[in-house]
Design brief:
Layout: H1 4-25, E1 29-33, E2 36-39, E3 43-47, E4 56-61, E5 65-72, E6 75-79, E7 85-89, E8 104-108, E9 113-116, E10 125-129, E11 134-141, E12 144-149, E13 152-157, E14 161-167, E15 189-193, E16 198-201, E17 210-214, E18 219-226, E19 229-233, E20 239-243, E21 247-251, H2 252-255, E22 270-275, H3 292-309, E23 313-316, H4 326-336, E24 340-347, E25 358-362, H5 365-378, E26 386-391, H6 395-398, E27 404-411, H7 415-421, H8 424-441
Parallel strand pairs: 22-23, 22-24, 24-27, 25-26
Antiparallel strand pairs: 1-2, 2-5, 3-4, 5-6, 6-7, 8-11, 8-14, 9-10, 11-12, 12-13, 15-18, 15-21, 16-17, 18-19, 19-20, 25-27
Helix pairs in contact: 3-8, 5-8
The chain binds zinc ion.
Residues 1, 276-277, 283-284, 292, 345 line the site of zinc ion.
């Protein structure tokens, strides 16, 4: 993980920028921790560039954490995943009825309706709209609606527009109004509510009577799709409609994954070992230009054998020098419903010999931290300094639905650390520690 420290410093820089921006806006994005923001609106469009003229590439939902990496003209560049970035409008994300349900389509209900450059009747008129003209509503502020106009925005009076249930259908993720992504098969799928207080309605439209308010993560049986709405049934047997853009779809089988069933002893456990890097991705370099990827596999092999001796079911994300992407590594643990996922790496500092020791990283506080703690405690008997446990924003941890940790087992560009990293006696010590720690962990 050669570049992690670099990234951390970049994030800190952007944090300062981000805090300044957020402080001045202070509405719907709040800081979650040092590198991230949390989306407060129910649905937020992510675009290719910092402006409305750019295509929508994805939508993000309330509660989702995003890393802010840049800011331009009141747009934030955010990181969606290791390889995916996009832009969100800082000024479109207030929690109003309209923006909360993504960009809805409105119909102008009166001829000669003026479209203004800003939200007051004295402002310059851009054009006059006819009755029946469609507008894409971005935002509602009191008597005014902000709508898309060419590559920019314009305003008109709320009273001149009848909002429809249609949403702009340009986004490509499942939680959009794009009808091609709507759920159609009921067989093995369930509808999951994204946020608290989501309305279950009598009819498939936003004005219909609310049957019940649903809490986040409520699972509902899918019955059918009507326009952009899902007819669903609650566990108590109540039937109603929820908007497709405020829910997620899950396989019945993956629901079990969110509640890890942990083995009660190591011999019953499935452990996924993840030797970092591989193939073209060589990892960090030693001072003698040796690759991190070789040593992560070497130590993984020793750990694998010792865990198997203890009776565990061990699955490796790679067993040779081949390239494996980050996503399938976490997926392996999710699919197998692994009891623990352990990613193996060696650290690197900016200048050689400037850092030493081992670090144990976790991402999910509730799921990973205990595993990180028991492992880290055991690592006190390793010959290298124990740098302790730390929060680490790594994709293999982030995407993991199972208890997961990432171990940095020494600095590859530190001469002393490297002398251990290359020795099988060190691998044996690490492997013994992991066996002891996991034996305690599963008790
Ligand atoms: Zn690494």
């Amino acid at each position: 993980m050669k570049t992690f420290l670099h990234k951390l410093w970049q994030w800190r820089l952007w944090l300062i920028v981000g805090l300044a921006i957020l402080g001045s806006i202070g509405t719907t994005i709040v800081m979650a921790n040092s590198q991230q923001v949390v989306v407060q609106a129910n649905v937020l469009n992510v675009r290719k560039g910092p402006g409305l003229a750019y295509d929508v590439t994805a939508q993000v939902n309330k509660g989702q954490r995003l890393t802010v990496i840049d800011e331009r003209n009141e747009w934030y560049e955010v990181r969606l995943s290791e390889t995916e970035v996009g832009w969100v409008a800082s000024w479109l994300i207030k929690n109003t009825e309209v923006s909360a349900t993504s960009n809805r389509i409105g119909l102008v209900n009166e001829g000669s309706t003026p479209l203004y450059v800003s939200n007051n009747t004295g402002a310059k008129q851009l054009k006059q709209l006819n009755a029946g003209d469609k507008v894409t509503v971005l935002y509602q502020e009191g008597d005014w609606l902000e709508v898309k106009y060419e590559d920019s925005v314009a305003w008109l009076l709320t009273s001149k527009v009848k909002l429809t249930d249609q949403v702009e259908s340009t986004a490509k993720t499942t939680n959009t109004g794009d009808s091609s992504s709507l759920l159609t098969k009921s067989s093995n799928q369930v509808v999951i509510i994204d946020t608290d207080n989501t309305a279950l309605r009598e009819q498939p439209n936003a004005e219909a009577t609310v049957v019940q308010k649903l809490a986040a993560k409520t699972a509902l049986t899918y019955l059918k799709t009507v326009n952009q709405w899902y007819q669903v049934k609650t566990a108590a047997g109540k039937t109603g409609y929820v908007a497709s853009w405020v829910v997620s779809i899950a396989d019945k089988s993956t629901l079990d994954d969110t509640m890890p069933k942990i083995a009660s002893n190591l011999a019953e456990a499935t452990i996924v070992l993840d030797p970092g890097h591989g193939g073209n991705d060589v990892g960090a370099l030693s001072q003698t230009s040796k690759y991190e990827k070789s040593y992560t596999l070497a130590v993984a092999n020793v750990i694998e054998n010792k865990l198997k001796d203890a009776g565990a079911n061990v699955v490796m994300t790679r067993t040779d020098d081949s390239f494996v992407d980050l996503a399938p590594r976490a997926q392996a643990a999710n699919k197998l419903k692994a009891d623990a996922f352990i990613s193996l790496h060696f650290d690197s500092s900016e200048t050689a010999n400037s850092a030493t020791g081992t670090t144990t990283y976790f991402y999910h506080d509730n799921r990973d931290k205990k595993l990180a703690q028991v492992l880290n405690e055991q690592f006190n008997n390793l010959p290298l300094t124990n740098r302790g446990i730390e929060y680490g924003n790594f994709q293999v941890l982030r995407d993991n639905q199972r208890p997961a940790v990432l171990l940095e087992l020494g600095y590859i560009n530190n001469s002393k650390d490297f002398s251990y990293i290359t020795k099988s006696s060190y691998y044996n010590k690490v492997a013994n520690d992991i066996v002891i720690a996991l034996t305690n962990y599963f008790k």
